[in-house]
């Protein structure tokens, strides 16, 4: 597992800041120790430095992964978040969308969120802002990009898209081969 280059670290932090803003510091300096990001085969892993030290004793050819996969870099050097990062990003989310129970299943099948399925939205959410999607019972369901700002949501018709789907917990079943 190698360190991320300066360019890739910048791309990763830019993507994370879309969802959790300046709370990236809390993701790295946690009360239970210091965590870091490492890369293996274009996939980025979030791992404790204690576990990383133990993993260095294993031959790199025998090591499949170490830590939690946060996402991967594409061939065009863009970063895509995986759903496995949701449990680590949800507590620090600055912008949230809650969906009605009727919309939950549609979102988990990979559909965008319509105004008719919107339960609540965080105030001052900007257009194209990264958001964490929650059920009405505060269970994180996935990631998305706000298609409309909070102010625009109040005056739009019920069939307009409010949030673009990016990832959801249904991917654990649909894409279990490629999540590692």
TrEMBL record:
One Pfam family hit: pre-PUA_NIP7
Key word RNA-binding present: yes
Annotated compartments: Nucleus, Nucleolus
Entry's Gene Ontology BP terms: ribosome assembly
GO molecular function: RNA binding
GO cellular component, one term: nucleolus
Family assignment from sequence similarity: Belongs to the NIP7 family.
PANTHER family: CYCLIN-DEPENDENT KINASES REGULATORY SUBUNIT/60S RIBOSOME SUBUNIT BIOGENESIS PROTEIN NIP7 (PTHR23415)
Name under which the protein is recorded: 60S ribosome subunit biogenesis protein NIP7 homolog
Organism: Megalurothrips usitatus (bean blossom thrips)
